Task: inverse folding
């Protein structure tokens, strides 16, 4: 067994964790994409779609909270899928989730470039380099996005305390600015509720419109996954995770809805959709509240970008830290800074791969958004299936060697959450469904799968050859002490390994 297992310091306070979950969930999308979503489904279609998505995500979040309370370790679904289904499933889950997280880091930074381009088009549109899918790439925009990525890598490199405090401050400013803008739009004499009609997009069925929005819910609410990724760093009881996750998701759903209403109030939404503005919400607010209202919205968007960047730097680096600690990916990603106690190699890696994003056009990034929803949906399914296996219907049910708790209600919640996760995947993968991936996204997904297979074949030898006892220690923190009955421990791990084999481990 390894003598050294790097551990993260218990630094994060409850309100910091809530701010990470909420801020990462709303991010830049709640301020940049409302006009696009309204054009896709109509105002009421978007609101209902996000409400349904939030309800499903809360079920998944509750299942996640069950797991956090039992195993407060970093790694999230990587750790939980290992516990219940074995090391191969754990790698698959972790690999797809890295994709989902890292793409959101890149997209948040790219949103900053989009905002600056809207505000100062003459300044940004200098030094044109080339075009990608009809989108012009400018040197100034590349430098802005790159600079913001490096800044937040540095903040995370400096320590968890810095990240947590700044995240909470960003969230406070975000909420204040969003409320001011919404009240201003609703109270303006030039706005009217009739601008929100028709409620759904003409020409398509209302349920089809709603389903198209539900399909992106895994991406829209993925920020709550910061909570399990930082569980090892809680300086409070893991039992609080349930409240933190539910409140973050519920307030995120309300936040999305009020920004939809604020955008749609400005003018008949069909007219706004027909304009194809670079930043539809910015145009709508400026047309009603002028530059003062736009300035407040810019503050809100900036804070949304900052919270998303900060939260997903944390999530991605912690996931890579957990996988590196288990040697599923190179152990260098599990190294901690001697002074700041942060997984600095993982943070630098996320920054480097995200620095590729500014050199591609917005259409390419949106393909990645659609495809990254698959990665997080796969992780959600593992969360719920793991929670399902950790509970029993009654005392006579098989425990599967997992010390399973008798908790029929929790088992039902996990089962329903699993169904929601499968539904999300179906909306994305079934051809002809409202949220089905386009061919570019399929190409990127195939590339990521091929890269994962190659990476696993070349670098995961130590991970595959490690004993179950050793991986238990590295991933879950379970270690046999000199006082414990090692025979009983081996019996426990053998039963769990045999159970996992039915899910494709062996």
Result:
């Amino acid at each position: 067994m390894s003598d050294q297992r790097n551990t993260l310091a218990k630094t994060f306070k409850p309100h910091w964790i809530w701010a990470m979950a909420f801020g990462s969930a709303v991010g830049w999308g709640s301020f940049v994409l409302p006009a696009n979503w309204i054009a896709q489904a109509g105002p009421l279609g978007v609101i209902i779609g996000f409400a349904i998505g939030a309800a499903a995500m809360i079920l998944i979040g509750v299942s996640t909270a069950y797991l956090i309370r039992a195993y407060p370790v970093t790694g999230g679904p990587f750790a939980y899928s290992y516990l219940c289904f074995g090391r191969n499933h754990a790698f698959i889950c972790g690999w797809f989730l890295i994709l989902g997280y890292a793409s959101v880091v890149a997209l948040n930074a790219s949103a900053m470039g989009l905002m600056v381009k809207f505000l100062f088009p003459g300044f940004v549109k200098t030094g044109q380099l080339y075009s990608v899918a009809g989108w012009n790439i400018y040197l100034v925009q590349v430098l802005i996005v790159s600079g913001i990525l490096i800044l937040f890598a540095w903040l995370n490199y400096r320590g968890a305390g810095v990240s947590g405090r700044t995240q909470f401050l960003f969230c406070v400013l975000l909420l204040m600015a969003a409320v001011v803008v919404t009240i201003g739009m609703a109270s303006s004499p030039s706005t009217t509720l009739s601008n929100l009609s028709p409620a759904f997009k003409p020409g398509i069925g209302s349920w089809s419109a709603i389903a198209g929005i539900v399909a992106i819910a895994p991406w829209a609410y993925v920020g709550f996954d910061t909570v399990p990724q930082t569980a090892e760093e809680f300086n409070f009881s893991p039992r609080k995770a349930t409240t933190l996750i539910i409140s973050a998701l519920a307030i995120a759903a309300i936040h999305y809805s009020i920004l939809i209403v604020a955008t749609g109030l400005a003018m008949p939404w069909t007219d706004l959709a027909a304009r194809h503005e670079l930043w539809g919400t910015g145009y709508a607010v400026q047309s009603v509240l002028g530059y003062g209202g736009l300035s407040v919205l810019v503050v809100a968007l900036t804070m949304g970008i900052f919270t998303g960047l900060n939260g997903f730097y944390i999530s991605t680096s912690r996931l890579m830290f957990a996988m590196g600690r288990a040697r599923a990916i190179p152990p260098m990603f599990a190294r901690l800074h001697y002074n700041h106690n942060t997984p600095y190699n993982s943070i630098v890696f996320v920054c480097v791969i995200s620095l590729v994003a500014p050199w591609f056009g917005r259409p390419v990034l949106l393909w990645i958004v659609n495809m990254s929803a698959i990665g997080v949906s796969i992780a959600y399914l593992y969360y719920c299936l793991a929670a399902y296996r950790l509970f029993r219907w009654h005392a006579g049910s098989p425990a599967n060697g997992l010390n399973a708790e008798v908790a029929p209600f929790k088992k039902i919640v996990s089962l329903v959450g699993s169904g929601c996760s499968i539904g999300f995947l179906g909306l994305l993968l079934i051809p002809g469904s409202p949220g089905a991936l386009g061919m570019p996204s399929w190409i990127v997904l195939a590339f990521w799968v091929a890269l994962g297979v190659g990476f696993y074949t070349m670098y995961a030898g130590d991970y595959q050859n490690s004993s179950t006892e050793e991986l238990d220690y590295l991933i879950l923190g379970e270690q046999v002490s000199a006082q414990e009955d090692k025979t009983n421990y081996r019996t426990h791990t053998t039963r769990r390994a045999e159970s996992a084999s039915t899910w494709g481990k062996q």
